[in-house]
Amino acid sequence: xxxxxxxxxxxxxxxxxxxxxxxxxxxxxxxxxxxxxxxxxxxxxxxxxxxxxxxxxxxxxxxxxxxxxxxxxxxxxxxxxxxxxxxxxxxxxxxxxxxxxxxxxxxxxxxxxxxxxxxxxxxxxxxxxxxxxxxxxxxxxxxxxxxxxxxxxxxxxxxxxxxxxxxxxxxxxxxxxxxxxxxxxxxxxxxxxxxxxxxxxxxxxxxxxxxxxxxxxxxxxxxxxxxxxxxxxxxxxxxxxxxxxxxxxxxxxxxxxxxxxxxxxxxxxxxxxxxxxxxxxxxxxxxxxxxxxxxxxxxxxxxxxxxxxxxxxxxxxxxxxxxxxxxxxxxxxxxxxxxxxxxxxxxxxxxxxxxxxxxxxxxxxxxxxxxxxxxxxxxxxxxxxxxxxxxxxxxxxxxxxxxxxxxxxxxxxxxxxxxxxxxxxxxxxxxxxxxxxxxxxxxxxxxxxxxxxxxxxxxxxxxxxxxxxxxxxxxxxx
Length: 478
Ligand code: BG6
Prior knowledge:
alpha/beta, 16 helices, TIM Barrel, binds 6-O-phosphono-beta-D-glucopyranose, eight-stranded parallel barrel
């Protein structure tokens, strides 16, 4: 048998991309709510255009999502039918602490997730909870500058105390920050950071990142104290950088770019700021303000497992002119260059199933800790028939190829892998573009980019396929 009998198969979502109910039961407004669809999105999510509230000129897809707030029982039942062993979901911080700086949590918010987790357990689905999937109460941005400000560490700690205590016995797998390295490219959407003219953006970003490192270590500490069964992971957007050519300059560029992501996990898993980063800070005059005890905390409370998203491998060149062509695309906010030998999805994302095996090996070789693939999948324009049924063979092909290489990484290379959750098992709003029409699901949701549709859920062809994959523990991929 390729995978351990306890291998965790499932799917992953984020609160702001599916829940909707943005103002229900005391929930406060968050950065992720005010990211509009359309041409201003990239400016807003990258912290260059101020958007701290709704206006009449834009449409905000997260307000409604796919209304999972009201449909979660139906949706989790479908996940149960597919045989999910795990469901990765995130909590919306502003449901629990609507403004972020209150002393006491909002009971209705706490109760909502308690019900959701109990619903999962009804189907023997373990919840894997992302504490922060990009969201931050907007009050914390307005009042404190969000993660720029040290005070937010305390507010995050309060959130951790509230959820670890309340969900003890219901949840044992946790992730502190989703795609922590994405803060570099989309600081407002990912961490509520907005930059005024004249602010030292690099300095502030790395200061904010330091605060997240401290918060993450504290979360791990608290989680273990509350319940020794808790396992707390870090999470980053992965995908090994390939050199554009075998020119040493390209190889070096690939290594350097890779380090900009590994930096986060070097700190969270090895427990130390790596030398290459300390040298960069020195060169660029970046001075991180730390409090006594920060470095000890980071060193002591490292991640129990390393989780990551993998959609594609990346490509780097030592020649700066190679980058100009591909910049500023909404769905390619990380500003990579195209790999000339690989195909891309309709949304311009490189397709590289073997790259998943490369990435798994790279991460495992570097850290020797258990890994968890918590996002992988194909965003595509689905064309449903009149009943909402989608023949998504292209999605099945994409997933099959990736799972095969994941299997090889486990069986042939000995990578220690706890589980695999596909991104968006049910169609949801795209984080990058805000579109609903960029779909990842095994379940089709009747909703368009501007909120029209019945919200009816319909199984796609891939639904039965994934069900079979799980039932056979990854043996039957046909
Ligand atoms: C990851 C995020 O970046 O990729 C998800 O963790 C996101 O929130 C997913 O939805 C896919 O990206 P996109 O832009 O296609 O939604």
